[in-house]
Amino acid sequence: AANEAVASHLDEAGRELLYRIHEPPDPQKVIEFEQIARRFGGGGHRRAAGFRVSGSASEARIRLMEAVEEYFDTHEAGQDG
Predict the structure, then answer these.
(1) Which residue from 27, 53, 76, 77 has the least number of CB within 10 angstroms?
(2) Which residues pair with 37 in a beta bridge?
């Protein structure tokens, strides 16, 4: 991953840096995110499921939250949606 390459480069150059280590994400949550990201043209694969949303930050937040709510509304109680 790009962030790991940059961290390695800075470490080898003797630069001080701050980083965090975390557990791999829950596979089900990754799948859920990918499905939501696809609505916005993202979700290419598990390591790069980002997307872009046009409009102001406030408008983008509203659209994203609507997509998240719709996703979980259609996937409650074991529905395949």
Answers:
(1) 77
(2) none
pLDDT per residue as tens digits for the range 8-28: 888 899 988 777 777 888 888
What's the token pair of residue 6?
């940059």
Contacts of 37 (CB under 8 A, 6+ apart): 43, 49, 50, 51
CA distances for 33 relative to 11, 29, 76, angstroms: 32, 6, 15
Please report the pLDDT score of residue 66 as a whole number: 92
The answer to whether 52 and 42 are in contact (CB under 8 A) is yes
The span from the CA of 53 to the CA of 40, in Å, is 7
